[in-house]
Write a structure and sequence with these properties.
The protein is an alpha+beta fold. About 35% of the residues lie in helices and about 30% in strands. The chain has an 11-stranded mixed beta sheet, with helices on both faces. Helix 1 packs across helix 5 and helix 2 packs across helix 3. It comes from Paenibacillus violae.
Length: about 260
Amino acid sequence: MSATQKLIFENMVRAYEKLSQLSQVFTFVETNRTQRFESEIPYGLFNSVFTYKRSEEINPEDEMASIKSFYHNRGHKLAWLTTSHDQDEVINQALATNHFHQVGVISGMGLSLKDWRSELPELPGLEVRAVRETQEIEEFRRVILAGYNVPEPMADIFCKVFVDGPNQDITTVQHYLAYMDGVPVTTLTTFTEGDVAGFYSIATLEAYRSRGIARTMLAHVLHIVQQKGVNLAVIHATPMGRSVYPKVGFKEELSINIFSS
């Protein structure tokens, strides 16, 4: 991996570690060879292995089977992440032997902010605010739940992890809301560590999609973090976002493959 690729992946790991600390809903476990998360929540990345460094003394197929059994015995599937620029055929074979199947891919994207300037035009009626007040938190909660179409049984847990927990530490995590003509329509959250800022929880109400709101909001917040001394912005994009973020200047640096069993 290049230095940029490592920073993109590490921001994702550290963001989830921070979420685990703030929400206390899931647990980050780090050993000399693994970084993983475990919880009682039936949600993929809350029960997952983010990094795994195999040992020549231990059969990876057996060790993977043991880790998988730990999660299965708790009643949960296990997600296992690998990256496109750190492939290990021994690990890939162990995944296949243990009946892991690829269920998704995330694009790790980066943008150097050292000389970056937005070339996007302003959107009339659009206002972007850093979330501070109780009413803004409530609006953020409503928009993100609707934007991600979170089912009602998961709404409280989802908000505890991605909304209320992060709001306790605005030194590293900051929520933003975009308003169109006074209506809250898009959410965005930044996680900043050192001079790297990760952009997460970008969700737009369905009725306001395809208007350029998310990318214009993103450009606005990029300027904010740039002014604070951030040199690298990173995004972990779903297939839907891969076509949006390059319009602001992001470039795909690696793929994060998600396997499940």
